[in-house]
């Protein structure tokens, strides 16, 4: 079996779609509230997860096969392999996710109370009695590129790297090891129940620990529409701490953790079952 497989990307797309369907009632503010009647959230997040899962799975498989040539333990998951594959997936996710998150936050700011990271910002366009800056997703992209250049689409990229690289390490690594721990040695692969439980717990762990940097990332991306408050990551952290204390970085941690379980459980279960169907396997297999 070759090291690069397109099935992982297709299965990641299906898993991403499953997570959005499950998370829709729990995540309307962060994802759907400002794209009513549009397919943008489903399409973009499904594609995003497709790339992340495809990159992680192929990278992890490549590393495992490399070690298999040097060792007999070809089936074991080494921590170093999982760590490197997770970090690569995190970097790739940032390249895709930063513009998407930026557009979501910019549009949300002007149409409804901005609760990303529980910041509690009010819709400024309404409060100030002015016309919204952006007329929609396409106009938002065009405006940002025109006024801030292509680099403007990556505002907050540093904070997102600090959120997603460790975040995906705490996403994939717990998932794989929990699966290995739950699944009896006699089984060829984990059961759907094991996938659901391991995926849910991994999502809760990842989203819970990512909350502080998610708050910083969101504040940086919200900055610059009507005024510029922050000079960078450290300035944002400093100002936020000085004005609101340490607790500001943990706002929304309970919601993020609780929401992370069903969305990630659906994500991993959709991924694994669709991968099984695509490959014609009879058992669920780990990435």
From TrEMBL:
Coiled-coil annotated residue ranges, if any: none
Membrane topology qualifier: Multi-pass membrane protein
Gene Ontology CC terms, in alphabetical order: mitochondrial inner membrane
Subcellular location: Mitochondrion inner membrane
Transmembrane helix recorded as keyword: yes
Family matches, as SUPFAM superfamilies: Mitochondrial carrier
Keywords: Membrane, Mitochondrion, Mitochondrion inner membrane, Repeat, Transmembrane, Transmembrane helix, Transport
A Pfam family reported for this protein in Swiss-Prot or TrEMBL: Mito_carr
One GO MF term: transmembrane transporter activity
Residue spans crossing the bilayer: 38-58
Solcar repeats: 77-181, 190-277
UniProt main location, coarse: mitochondrion
Similarity comment: family membership: Belongs to the mitochondrial carrier (TC 2.A.29) family.
Protein name (record): Solute carrier family 25 member 48
